[in-house]
Amino acid sequence: MSETGNRLRKLLESPNFDPQSYVKQLSQQSDGDRDLQEHRQKIQNLADETAQNLKKNVYKNYRQFIETAKEISYLESEMYQLSHILTEQKSIMESITQSLLSTDKDETSKEMQAAFPKETEELKQRTLTSLLEKVEGAKNIMDTPGRHLVYNGDLVEFDVDNMSPIQKVHAFLMNDCLLIATWLPNRRGTVKYKYNALYDLESFAVVNVKDNPPMKDMFKILMFPDSRIFQAENSKVKKEWLEILDETKKNKVSKEKHKKEEEVPMSPVRAEVSTNPFDMEDEETVESEDSVDLSMEWIQELPEDLDVCIAQRDFEGAVDLLDKLNEYLKDQPATPKVKELRAKVDERVRQLTEVLVFELSPDRSLRGGPKATRRAVSQLIRLGQSTKACELFLKNRAAAVQTAIRQLRIEGATLLYIHKLCNIFFTSLLETAKEFEMDFAGNTGCYSAFVVWSRSAMTMFVDAFSKQVFDSKESLSTAAECVKVAKEHCQQLTEIGLDLTFTLQSLLVKDVKASLQSYKDIIIEATKHRNSEEMWRRMNLMTPEALAKLKEEMRSCGINFQLYTGDDCWVNLSYTVVAFTKQMMSFLEEGLKLYFPELHMVLLESLREIILVAVQHVDYSLRCEQDSDKKSFILQNASFLHDTVLPVVERRFEEAVGKPAKQLQDLRKSTRPVRINPDSTTSLV
Asked: Which residues does the annotated region (Disordered) include (predicted)?
């Protein structure tokens, strides 16, 4: 670059550069237009050179941009893994803390019960009785002896699907069950609540719901196949509910175990030798109990090994250890040592189950598709919890499908959006079905749950489909193409023996029926408007190309139009009749694409009403027209409708549906064009 160019560059790059003063100074120093043109060229050359240098720098650093993007992607993946590990560590620490707190609470409660056993039970029962007097329909709850109140409080119930608040409830936790009561809007005396549900403590599981503002302080109660979500007043109350529910369930299990142990008859201790054969059997039982060998190293270290496997997410290893222990103790008697070992192992099984349930919860990342859930599902099935695994798997997949549909961007072209929507939904449904069949191959009882889930998923799909196609008032042709695409994708599910075509049709039938009737009304109004301006003149298309195009359109509809074309570009039919024919044949084709068996009569009646409008107009024109030439022309149009168009409509309908169009046949028979008097009146009969 020349020295002048360098000075100009430095001037423009200086931080104190003022464009207005520079232009003003330049205009004062220039002698004329030529100097300004030269200066403009210098600035343009400088701009081109700068742009060229910028491109070179971009190409030079392009590889660095790619590598930087890769590094960012790797860093994001590592941060996600780190977050995952930290979350697991936090849950492990919380479980350890909970176990320590529960131990302290157990010791304290035992001391309190030892000090005031009778008074505490009576006080709890009196408290429960006074509270249940405020609940309508809960009189028989106190009939169970020994039942007393543990905890109670107000909660807000939320809808499981859309997380919207449903109602305010009051929960009563007793030592063997959980009572849910709803608030009465109109209180009657001391009665404040109404009985809603009563759950045995063994019939449900409690799951902590991760806070996702504004949805927070929630926990879920799982009762297969249903579940309910409640929100506490704050995090402290939620923590109390979770702790007390867990502690109460444990206390009930331990009490039932002690009760069973006490019911087992113990053999009396005899100092003398007895010849009774039953005493000999008792001695043999004691000897067999002493013969259970639990001193092996792998058994002694089993609880700790299970803790390590759970912490390291080695779920397969943990379940393998449990299977090994169950196989070893299968034929062994239930000695006190065996029961003690079982109690330790059951606690680890509970922790392992909670971790696996968390792995399948919808709150977790939904990446990876159905295969990502296989590991947790298979281990839950091995633990004998196939029902819970089925429920959690289907909920996980429902959340994944719903998220994918929500993330789908709504395009301007409706058909393009529907193609993407069908591809996402039916591909996900097909993958879910294949994964379900693989995971639950040995649990045929779960297949009914999958069928129910498939119908609910189809309902979610149809909601998104109808909102885009029918609520936006798309044309009938667009709606027909969209429904055709959905049918074709639904047909793919028959590859795995899943036929949801009937479900899809039953969910769409209401919207399709409304669309057909709406478009029918539009055609009738347009036909009446054209009829009001009818002059009964031959149609002139002006150019041979336009005539050839019209012939091709009629030929594609199955109509022989050659007989009605005259010399040059004339057509021996009126514009109104030709326009009506094209519009009705289009309605027929689109209606057949939308055809369901439930819509058979709807489509037939719509066609009949449309044809009747044209027939009545022709009949009225024949009766009112006085000119014999025009009457002859009108009769020619009537013959075209009766002898050419209506048979094509009947034949096309029967070919597509497989049933004859009886209503259309009756209409054609009742509208024969006849000449009553050659010199006077012609009409349709």
From this structure: 666-685
Nearest to 289 by CA among 346, 343, 337: 337
Per-residue pLDDT at 133 exceeds 50: yes
Give the H/E segment covering residue 144: none
Residue for token digits 């998220």? 403
Residues 6+ apart with CB under 8 A from 246: 98, 102, 206
- Yes or no: say if 430 and 496 are a contact pair by the CB < 8 Å rule: yes
**Percent of all residues in the chain with a pLDDT value above 90, rounded to a whole number:** 2
Which residues lie below 8 Å from residue 437, measured CB to CB, with a gap of 6+? Answer: 496
User: Residues near 485 by Cβ (< 8 Å), separated by ≥ 6?
Assistant: 415, 418, 419, 422
DSSP letter for 459, please: H
**Between β-strands 177-188 and 165-174, what pairing exists: parallel, antiparallel or unpaired?**
antiparallel
Task: Please check the confidence at residue 507 and state whether its pLDDT lies above 60.
Answer: yes
Output the pLDDT for position 274. Answer: 43
User: Quick one: the chain helix, strand, coil %, rounded to 5?
Assistant: 70, 10, 20
Contacts by residues 561-565 (CB-CB < 8 Å, ≥ 24 positions apart): 564/640
Residue type for 142, please? M
Structural contact between residues 653 and 600, judged by C-beta atoms closer than 8 angstroms: no
Residue among 584, 589, 581 nearest 550 (CA): 581
Please tell me the predicted confidence (pLDDT) of residue 56: 80
What is the C-alpha to C-alpha distance for residues 603 and 476, in angstroms, rounded to an integer?
13
Tokens of 80: 């996600």
Scan for tokens 């079982």, then name that residue: 342
How far, in Å, CA of 583 to CA of 590, rounded?
Answer: 11
Q: Kindly give, in sequence order, each residue whose CB lies less than 8 Å from that of residue 278, ignoring residues fewer than 6 positions away.
A: none
Q: Is the pLDDT of residue 113 over 70?
A: no
Question: What is the identity of the amino acid at 532?
Answer: S
Phi, psi of 157 (to 5 degrees): -90, 135
pLDDT score at 110: 59
* 320-350 per-position pLDDT tens digit: 888 888 888 877 777 788 888 888 888 888 8
Element (H, E) at 14: none
| Alpha carbon separation from 83 to 74, 80, 93, 372 (Å, rounded) | 14, 5, 15, 18
Give the pLDDT mean for 436-452: 82
Residue entry with tokens 């009756």: 666
More confident residue, 450 or 670: 450
Enter the pTM of the model: 0.51
Q: What is the DSSP letter of 539?
A: E
Helix (H, G, I), strand (E, B) or coil at 658: coil
Q: Sign of the CA dihedral 502, 507, 511, 513? A: positive
**H helix count then E strand count, the chain:** 23, 12
Q: Tell me how long the chain is.
A: 685
Collapsing DSSP states into helix, strand and coil, what is residue 94? helix
Copy the structure tokens of residue 385: 């919890």
State the sign of the Cα–Cα–Cα–Cα dihedral 254, 259, 263, 267.
positive
- pLDDT given at position 155: 92
3-state DSSP call for residue 296?
coil
Range name among 67-76, 86-95, 236-245, 277-286 with the lowest pLDDT average: 277-286
pLDDT at 517 over 70: yes
Instruction: Give per-residue burial for 238-253: e unless 16+ CB within 10 Å, then b.
Output: beebbeebebbbebbe
Task: Give the Cα separation of 301 and 229 in Å (integer).
Answer: 39
Per-residue model confidence (pLDDT) at position 411: 66
